[in-house]
Structure formats: structure tokens, C-alpha cells
Automatic annotation (TrEMBL):
InterPro entries: MoCofactor_Util/Proc, XdhC_Rossmann_dom. It comes from Aureimonas glaciei. Transmembrane segments: none annotated. Residues 77-215 form the XdhC Rossmann domain. It comes from the Bacteria. Pfam families: XdhC_C (PF13478). This is XdhC Rossmann domain-containing protein.
Length: 232
């Protein structure tokens, strides 16, 4: 691999952006494709599928075989709210391969006893997100029911292009939330609310399953057109 290509790849990885090294098998020629450039690439369809799956592999093209070496950041879930749903969601998400962080300024809820072996921060979300910004490979789950805690990270998630943004609450609660976000300059926000897949979930653990299912679906359908998503 050329030094310049390696440097470009490392820069993308350090910034938590996805990239693929395309290698022509016949010639050994290599090039780097950033995820933002993939839609205009001659291999757009194969690159899009590789970015979504995160798996490297061989692809046949008209000019010969190429190997796609995929580099995607580890997907993470930031949960705003140390509540019962979060207690169930955190271990499930870790089993599914996600990095998980729970953020809640309410120290009575955000305790190591309630969240063993989980990254837990008992600070206001705006302070946490300054140190660890959200990005396109982060899912944001807001479950406190408190606008003072939930609204800012929701705005931050939408601005950062998080692959999934969900918020707990009824349709009436969400309508009020959307009014607040609109008044703060956020319009047409793609927030999933009610949160999670529609599986009739009732208990905190069932809601956690529904939320994790929604997150996985959103991750694996990143960049799909509406027709592709329906066919998936």
C-alpha cells in the first residue's frame, strides 16, 4: 500500500469515517473510496453494500475482479437516560457488538450498581458530547422524558447525521418535542417516536429489544434508497 494512501486511510479512521481500499487483482492498483464519495463511483452498488455490511470481499467487474477492504468505525449507541429500558438495552447491545454509553446527569439513576460493566457518565449531555461528539456511526437513544435532558442531544444527533435517532414518548409527547425542535431551527427531523420496532412491546426489556432491532435495521440500511429498503 502506498504511504499516501495509508495516510489518507488512517485519517478517515481517526475521524470515525468509513472508507474502502479497492484493489484490482490483475494489476495490484489500489485506490481509496470514502463513504461520502461512493454514490458517484463506478462501483457504487457494490461499495454501498460493503459499507452497510462492514464486510470485505471480492467483487467481479467488467474489467476484472477487485477486492474491497472495508474499514468502518465500530458502531456505538449513546443512551440519554439511566432508566429501566437502558438497563436492559445496554447488555443486549453489547452482545450485538455495539459500544454503549449511558449518559444521565441524575446521579440517583446513573450509578455503577445499576449499570455494571457499562460506560456510564453522570453529567449533562452537552458536556459529554463536547468531549465525545456524535457522528454518522452513532445511534442516539433519548429515554428520560425530560426535555431539559433529551432535547439538546437530539439536536446534536440530527446535526451530526447519526444513523439512528429515537426518543421515548407517546405521539402527543413527540408532537410537543417536534414543536420545540422546530422552534430551535430543526425542521423535518427523522426521529423515531414512538421508539423501536412495532412489536407490541410493553415491558422495559421488550422495549429494549424493539429499540435494538430498530437500531440494527437502521445500521444495515444506511444509504439505501426507499426501493432498496423495501426490497431488503
Amino acid at each position: 500500500m502506498r504511504l499516501s494512501l495509508l495516510q489518507d486511510l488512517n485519517a478517515e479512521r481517526a475521524a470515525r469515517r468509513a472508507a474502502i481500499v479497492v484493489t484490482e487483482i490483475a494489476t495490484g492498483a489500489q485506490r481509496l473510496v470514502r463513504e461520502s464519495d461512493a454514490p458517484g463511483d463506478p462501483l457504487a452498488e457494490a461499495l454501498g453494500a460493503a459499507f452497510r455490511s462492514g464486510k470485505s470481499g471480492m467483487v467481479k467487474t467488467e474489467s476484472g475482479e477487485v477486492f474491497l477492504n472495508v474499514h468502518v468505525p465500530p458502531a456505538r449507541i449513546v443512551v440519554i437516560g439511566a432508566v429501566h429500558i437502558s438497563q436492559a438495552l445496554a447488555p443486549m447491545a453489547r452482545l450485538a457488538g455495539f459500544d454503549v454509553e449511558i449518559v444521565d446527569p441524575r446521579t440517583a439513576f446513573a450509578t455503577p450498581e445499576r449499570f455494571p460493566d457499562v460506560a456510564l457518565t453522570a453529567e449533562w449531555p452537552e458536556d459529554v458530547l463536547k468531549a465525545r461528539p456524535l457522528d454518522a456511526y452513532t445511534a442516539l437513544v433519548a429515554v428520560t422524558h425530560d426535555p431539559k435532558i433529551d432535547d439538546l442531544p437530539l439536536r446534536a444527533a440530527l446535526s451530526a447525521g447519526c444513523f439512528y435517532v429515537g426518543a421515548l414518548g407517546s405521539r402527543k409527547t413527540h408532537a410537543s418535542r417536534m414543536t420545540r425542535l422546530s422552534e430551535s431551527g430543526v425542521d423535518g427531523a427523522p426521529i423515531e417516536a414512538p421508539i423501536g420496532l412495532d412489536i407490541g412491546a410493553a415491558t422495559p426489556a421488550e422495549i429494549a429489544v424493539a429499540v435494538l432491532g430498530s437500531i440494527i435495521r437502521a445500521l444495515r440500511r444506511r444509504g439505501m434508497t426507499a426501493d432498496q429498503a423495501r426490497a431488503a
